[in-house]
Fold Arsenate reductase.
Amino acid sequence: MKPKVAFICVHNSCRSQMAEALGKLFAKEVYESYSAGTETKPQINQDAVRIIKDLYNVDMNQSQSSKLLSDIPEADIVIKMGCNVVCPIVPGKHIEDWGLEDPTGKSDEEFIKTARTVEEKVKDLANRIKNGEIKL
């Protein structure tokens, strides 16, 4: 069975949504991707939606929405996006913090940089799971 990965940040509208989308795109054979937050937004950050659509041809408006932690299954692996505030406490067998800056309100360049970093990290996570570096 594939491990479940939860990408967590406070609002579940930008970085964690990007991670969910890119996890589904690049790592679906290794793990299941979910994202959630302690609060939700009425819609996903539309700059993030636009950038992910431009770069990867994935429409997050179609496939994803802002979710609470209680809306997703229990995760084996919990990835915190890097909350400057207190990150939600979520139980998991493996927990790490990616420490990503929130690009909300910044330029497209910042969103693209964040998306590329998330892509790299999502792929790296898949490799580490495949190689047995993460004990579950």
The chain has a mean pLDDT of 93. The first strand starts at residue 4 and ends at 8.
